[in-house]
Design a protein that fits this description.
Layout: E1 4-8, H1 12-24, E2 28-32, H2 35-45, E3 49-52, H3 61-70, E4 79-83, H4 88-96, E5 101-104, H5 109-139, E6 158-162, H6 166-176, E7 181-185, H7 188-197, E8 202-206, H8 214-223, E9 232-237, H9 241-249, E10 254-258, H10 262-294, H11 304-320, E11 325-332, H12 335-342, H13 344-359, E12 367-372, E13 375-381, H14 385-400, E14 417-423, H15 431-447, E15 453-455
Parallel strand pairs: 1-2, 1-3, 3-4, 4-5, 6-7, 6-8, 8-9, 9-10, 14-15
Antiparallel strand pairs: 11-13, 11-14, 12-13
């Protein structure tokens, strides 16, 4: 694992020790001896992790962490606090200003490296999401370099607590309710089933479960598709060093230390929720960006460029395998008259309705789009000419047989479509040629009176396809 770690400490001895630990793991190390220098280093070097001391002259570690997490450009950079302050209130304060984890000096080297690796890995997941989200926005021609993530609201978390010790359960529940909802399960097998039925914002697992292996449960939860990205907190005592290291190695994100300190627990859980909801917001933005990049907002069908990017490979692949590809180009008849007579609002309603009736006649594997204006295109893999004519006729009837409801005193509007069809016919056929032939067939359908299906004359030559 290669990554850059910024070590911030005003003690040269502490910096040297941390550098030795990190460089032994082949990590690049950058250092800073005070708060302002640390913030400058972050801007210059873009670290994958900040290891931060709290007790520094001038700007202390709390303020440095707060500034890192309040800046949209660096809020995703994980901060690991390494401090001699051992009071639970100090740990709670660190989590409240955005720290991702907290370790006490003197350090246990394997535990420290395990936490470093865990935080760097989580940063890489976030980095991939940020890049994808930014690419999605660029596809929509939006400006801005940073991720457009709104302010994170951490209230109302859905938490799963897997523990069978009554004292532990009561302490954790009383600390987290009513800000969050806590679902309690005392059986490891039942907990696995519950996670498949419901979505949780974080899962807390007691490593000391009776009759079950808490570490094994953590491993199973991390490998489940439903909980792969869910924050996972292990409940353990500070002295359970070996178990903690193993938990981190299998993907646990943090710990609830026994005995429970309410403030520290609340702050630690909220820190995990904040990070998860940041990632969730990035995933949501990415999904919306991709949908808007390829989906027509009026009809919810794909845009033309989406079809054009896939049609070429689709035709080439099927032609190579001796399978036909058929194409329909559909045009709403007399659509200009609809707009001129009823207005563009009614025209939009007609397009939405026609698109919906077309889509309801298709298979999930069929490639459809709004080609432009009042034209729609559908590509069918493995469908021959005779069959595509039947499909086209079914679509034509579905549009023509039922008037389109519109907001007008003239009542429902009768709408028809003309359809041109074409099918691949040889090993040298191409997507461009297929589109051209379907367009020629559409022209013939309109010329022959509209509200009809016309197939390009080549369709008879592909009757031998199976």
């Amino acid at each position: 694992m290669t990554a850059r770690v910024l070590v911030v400490d005003d003690s040269a001895g502490s910096v040297a020790l941390l550098e030795a630990y990190l460089k032994f793991e082949y990590l690049e190390v950058v250092s800073a001896s005070n708060g302002p220098q640390a913030l400058a280093r972050i801007a210059e070097r873009e670290p994958d992790l900040v290891v931060l001391d709290l007790l520094m002259e001038g700007m202390d570690g709390f303020e440095v962490c707060r500034r890192i997490k309040s800046d949209p450009g660096t809020t995703h950079v994980p901060v690991l606090i390494v401090s001699s302050l051992d009071a639970p209130t100090d740990r709670a304060k660190a989590f409240n200003v955005g720290a991702d984890d907290y370790m006490m000096k003197p350090l246990h080297s394997p535990s420290f490296i395990a936490r470093v690796r865990s935080l760097i890995q989580s940063k890489r997941v976030i980095d991939e999401l940020r890049v994808a989200e930014r690419t999605g926005r660029e596809m929509r021609f939006q400006s801005g370099a940073g991720a457009t993530v709104p302010e994170i609201d951490i209230a109302g978390g859905q938490l799963l607590l897997v523990a069978d010790d009554r004292t532990t359960v009561n302490q954790i529940r009383s600390a987290l309710v009513p800000e969050h909802q806590v679902h309690i399960d005392r059986d490891a097998d039942d907990a696995l089933l519950v996670t498949k039925r419901g979505e949780f914002d974080a899962i807390l697992v007691d490593l000391s479960l009776e009759g079950a292996d808490g570490l094994r449960l953590c491993s199973q939860l991390r490998n489940l598709e439903e909980t792969r990205h869910t924050p996972l907190l292990a409940i353990a005592r500070e002295r359970d060093i070996v178990a903690r290291v193993r938990a981190l190695e299998m993907g646990v994100n943090g710990f609830v230390t026994l005995p429970v300190h309410i403030g520290e627990l609340q702050a630690g859980v909220n820190s995990q929720l904040r990070r998860k909801r940041y990632a969730d917001a990035l995933r949501r933005n990415l999904r919306q960006s991709l949908e808007r990049a390829v989906k027509d907002p009026l009809t919810s069908m794909h845009k033309r460029r989406f079809l054009e990017s896939l049609l070429g490979p689709l035709v080439a692949q099927n032609v190579e395998r001796g399978r036909p590809v058929s194409l329909l180009i559909m045009d709403v008849d007399h659509f200009k008259a609809v707009n001129d007579t009823y207005g563009h609002d009614v025209g939009d309603a007609v397009l939405r309705e026609v698109a919906g009736r077309i889509s309801s006649s298709l298979r999930g594997i069929d490639l459809s789009c709004r080609f432009g204006g009042e034209e729609f295109v559908v590509a069918f893999s493995g469908i021959d000419g005779a069959t595509v004519v039947q499909i086209a006729e079914r679509i034509r009837c579905k549009v023509a047989d039922r008037p389109v409801p519109i907001v007008s005193d003239k009542g429902p509007l009768q709408v028809t479509i003309s359809i041109g069809a074409a099918t691949t016919f040889g090993s040298d056929d191409t997507a461009a040629a297929l589109l051209k032939r379907a367009d020629q067939a559409l022209y013939r359908a309109k010329k022959d009176g509209r509200n009809r299906v016309a197939h390009h004359e080549k369709w008879e030559e592909v009757a031998g396809f199976s």
